Amino acid sequence: MRTITVQVRAGLGVGRLAAAMQSLVELHPELCRSGFAHHEVADPAAATPAALAEAEAGLDLQTGVLMHLVWLDAGPARTGRIVLVLHDIVADRLPRILPWLVQAWKQPVLVS
Question: Backbone phi, then psi, for 6, in 5-degree steps?
């Protein structure tokens, strides 16, 4: 298991982040066989080792959850962070995951 923490813009919004992650998985299905898991922590101070351990425990090679995203939301006016928790099987792709995620985030969000 490997983790990477990235600072994100204020006002990112969980919908936009989830759409970017889903786009990332669709473009690169080898990163996640059956989807990805994510959850939001409203207060970054609540990002305790227990919260990250929970994210790690959510990884499951048998069900295909190879990435877990934890969003540390600091509110609409402050930058937040995301923590990507990766199963060892995809951890070697770590350097490429961030550019892919940024590219997916920049894509227009389709409203249906």
Answer: -130, 135
What distance in Å separates the CA atoms of residue 16 and residue 2, rounded to the nearest whole number? Answer: 24
pLDDT tens track, the chain, 112 positions: 888 888 888 877 777 777 787 777 777 776 666 556 655 665 666 666 777 888 888 888 888 788 888 888 777 888 888 888 888 887 776 667 778 777 777 766 554 4
Nearby residues of 55 by Cβ (< 8 Å), 6 or more positions away: 37, 39, 68, 70, 83, 85
Angle at 39 between CA 71 and CA 110, to 5 degrees: 80
CA distance 86 to 73: 20
Look up residue 111 and give its two tokens: 């409203």
Q: Global pTM?
A: 0.73
